[in-house]
C-alpha cells in the first residue's frame, strides 16, 4: 500500500520524505489555507521535495472553471494530480482531463455509487473520507471494503482507492487488510505507526544488558 502524506506543511513533508516511506502528498484548500502560503508556490515546493504524485485541488465548481484550473495546476509540475470534488461537474471535468492524459484524484467521496461514477469517469484515484463518516457514526472502513469489492469485479475500473480523512493507525491497518491502494496520512498518524511500548521496553532492556556486559560493536 502506498503512503501519501496529507498536509501542506513543508517541514513535516521534508521530515517524513527523509524516511523513504512517503510515496506522494495530498492537499486540499483547507490545508493550503493553513500553510499561509501562496497556493502555486507551496505546491511547486512540495513537488520538488516529493517526486511522487501530489494532489492539488481546484476551487472552481463549474465544469469550465475546473478544467481551466486543473490545467493551470498540472502546469506547475509533472507530478501534480488534479483534485476534483465528486459532483456532476467534477465528474465531467474528470473525464475531460483524464482523456487529455491528466491524472485526477476525485475527492469528497462518501458512497459506493459515487466511487463507481468516479471510476467510470476515468479517475486515477478515488478519495473516500473515512474519518468524516466515522464522525457521524457510519463505518468508514465498510465503504472502503465495498469499493474494493466493487472495483475488483470489473477489469475496466482502474481507479486506485486512496483512503482519506484517516484519524488513526487502525484506519491504516484496516485499509491495508482490505487492500486499498493508497492511504493518505496526517503526519502525526504516520509517525505513530512505528511506535509500540513493548518495542521501547525491549530495546531499553537490550541496551541495559549490552552496557552491563560491556558489549561493543
Ligand atoms: O485531504 C483530504 C482528507 O484527508 C481530509 O481529511 O481530516 O479533513 O477529514 P479530514
Task: Write the SSE topology.
Blueprint (H helix, E strand, L loop, with lengths): L1 E5 L3 H8 L6 E3 L2 H7 L3 H11 L3 E5 L5 H12 L5 E6 L2 H12 L4 E6 L2 H9 L4 E4 L1 H6 L4 H13 L7 E4 L5 H10 L3 E4 L1 H6 L4 H16 L5
Parallel strand pairs: 1-2, 1-8, 2-3, 3-4, 4-5, 5-6, 6-7, 7-8
Helix pairs in contact: 1-3, 4-5, 6-8, 8-9
The structure holds SN-glycerol-3-phosphate (G3P).
**CATH-assigned homologous superfamily:** Aldolase class I
Described by strand count, sense and barrel closure, the largest sheet is:
8 strands, parallel, barrel
Assembly state: single chain
Helix proportion: 40-55%
Overall, the morphology is globular
Low-pLDDT stretches are none
N-to-C CA distance? 35 Å
CATH architecture: Alpha-Beta Barrel
**Backbone CA Rg:** 19 Å
Average residue pLDDT: 98
**Can you list the strand order of the major beta sheet?**
1-2-3-4-5-6-7-8
Query: What are the secondary-structure elements, in order, as H or E?
Result: EHEHHEHEHEHEHHEHEHH
Query: How many structural domains?
Result: 1
Describe this structure in words.
By secondary structure, this protein is an alpha/beta fold. The protein has one domain: Alpha-Beta Barrel (TIM Barrel), CATH 3.20.20. The chain contains 11 helices and 8 strands. Strand 3, helix 4 (63-74) and strand 4 (80-85) form a beta-alpha-beta unit. Helix 6 crosses helix 8 and helix 8 (140-152) packs parallel to helix 9. The relative contact order is 0.13. Bound molecules: SN-glycerol-3-phosphate. SN-glycerol-3-phosphate (G3P) binds next to helix 7.
Amino acid at each position: 500500500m502506498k503512503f501519501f502524506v496529507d498536509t501542506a506543511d513543508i517541514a513535516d513533508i521534508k521530515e517524513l520524505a527523509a524516511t523513504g516511506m512517503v510515496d506522494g502528498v495530498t492537499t486540499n484548500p483547507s490545508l493550503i489555507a493553513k500553510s499561509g502560503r501562496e497556493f502555486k508556490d507551496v505546491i511547486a515546493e512540495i513537488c520538488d521535495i516529493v517526486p511522487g504524485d501530489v494532489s492539488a485541488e481546484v476551487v472552481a465548481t463549474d465544469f469550465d472553471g475546473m478544467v481551466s484550473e486543473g490545467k493551470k495546476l498540472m502546469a506547475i509540475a509533472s507530478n501534480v494530480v488534479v483534485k476534483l470534488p465528486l459532483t456532476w461537474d467534477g465528474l465531467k471535468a474528470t473525464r475531460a482531463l483524464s482523456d487529455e492524459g491528466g491524472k485526477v484524484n476525485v475527492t469528497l467521496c462518501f458512497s459506493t455509487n459515487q466511487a463507481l461514477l468516479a471510476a467510470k469517469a476515468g479517475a486515477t484515484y478515488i478519495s473516500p473520507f473515512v474519518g468524516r463518516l466515522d464522525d457521524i457514526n457510519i463505518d468508514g472502513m465498510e465503504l472502503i471494503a465495498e469499493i474494493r469489492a466493487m472495483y475488483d469485479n470489473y477489469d475496466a475500473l482502474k481507479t486506485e482507492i486512496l483512503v482519506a480523512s484517516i484519524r488513526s493507525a487502525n484506519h491504516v491497518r484496516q485499509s491495508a487488510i482490505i487492500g486499498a491502494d493508497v492511504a493518505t496520512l496526517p503526519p502525526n498518524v504516520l509517525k505513530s505507526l512505528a511506535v509500540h511500548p513493548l518495542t521501547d521496553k525491549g530495546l531499553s532492556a537490550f541496551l541495559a544488558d549490552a552496557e552491563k556486559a560491556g558489549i561493543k560493536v
